[in-house]
């Protein structure tokens, strides 16, 4: 698929300046990633890359791997910001021990209880007897879910919105971020270095070693598939972020964001969380059994391009990465769904696609429908019903019905549909 051909991007030039590695291309320097692990003089990156994982959360393809980010703040009191997935436990432990340099950590700040960030909590408590966990009240309730038999008595400091924790030179301020994308999530703002530790917010797919200049590509796929349902909650956090001076964002996945990369990421998050289209274009998503529906979808794409459509994306739901198609559905303002009838309903991959849109709170878009059926077409009825359940979504007529294979009369209807889409 087009997303995973990085050969051209890797031919660009990497440049080190002020301890930061930036990709130099014809466009702006969009991503900053660390080369020496130091975010500031006293904040160190201790996370790890996972290049062996094939499916993130057992559903998202990640051919470029994943990063599990973790950070250490070196002060009079030492704070570790999250652990990592058990898959990379030994590598992370080695990074932690090296960064500690024979000292003991005082706090482990738990921003998010999902196992790819919290797997080593019990190990930390056992290894460092003086350590205290710092987390939300909701996270406290989850601890025993993941760590049966571990005694947390006297080892947990519960924090809420606005609470602060002094490490000496650094003061940490905690920000409630529930449902981004779990209910216990907090973020931490370091008032000293103006760093926001953003939990899964501003994360992306891909290992840091495979980072490219196109942050938005995999950040967009990550956002809509993992956080997309929770636009209202993201907007709430963005309003809080607007009130503070953020110079650096340290997410739990993906590169550290600074400068233009940070500004652009916040801008895109504002668009995405308002459920507004990001780009002009039309997505045609089709589910075809024997090729007749695919031919109709491709023919409509050709007509739209001939009539001047700026961007037309065609996706075969049986073969495309579903997460990428969901991403494109959110990116563009108009979606054409074309599907074969199947068992008095709709071909299953189309049902799956529309179900994903339903559970991701998809809204504010226009749809068009093409159905196919050899004797009693039913796909259109099912698709229309599912679309009508979506908030603020409009169906553009006419619905086009194909009988097995396209005829000359069908082409006339596709021409009409294309005019109405444009």
What does this structure look like?
This protein is an alpha/beta fold. It has 2 domains: 7-273, Metallo-beta-lactamase, Chain A (4-Layer Sandwich), CATH 3.60.15.10; 282-421, 3-Layer(aba) Sandwich (Rossmann fold). Helix content is 32%, strand content 24%. It is built from 12 helices and 25 strands. The protein has helices at residues 89-100, 115-118, 121-127, 137-146, 215-227, 231-242, 259-273, 292-306, 322-331, 348-359, 379-388, 408-421, and strands spanning 13-17, 20-24, 32-34, 43-45, 48-50, 55-56, 60-61, 66-68, 71-73, 79-81, 107-109, 132-135, 156-158, 164-166, 171-176, 186-190, 195-197, 248-250, 257-258, 282-287, 312-316, 334-342, 345-346, 366-372, 394-402. The chain has a 6-stranded mixed β-sheet. The protein has a 6-stranded mixed β-sheet with strand order 14-15-16-17-18-19. Strand 22 (334-342) and strand 23 form a beta hairpin. The protein is elongated. Mean pLDDT is 92; it is low at 1-35.
Write the layout of secondary structure elements.
Blueprint: E1 13-17, E2 20-24, E3 32-34, E4 43-45, E5 48-50, E6 55-56, E7 60-61, E8 66-68, E9 71-73, E10 79-81, H1 89-100, E11 107-109, H2 115-118, H3 121-127, E12 132-135, H4 137-146, E13 156-158, E14 164-166, E15 171-176, E16 186-190, E17 195-197, H5 215-227, H6 231-242, E18 248-250, E19 257-258, H7 259-273, E20 282-287, H8 292-306, E21 312-316, H9 322-331, E22 334-342, E23 345-346, H10 348-359, E24 366-372, H11 379-388, E25 394-402, H12 408-421
Parallel strand pairs: 10-11, 11-12, 12-13, 17-18, 20-21, 20-22, 22-24, 24-25
Antiparallel strand pairs: 1-2, 2-3, 4-9, 5-8, 6-7, 9-10, 14-15, 15-16, 16-17, 18-19, 22-23
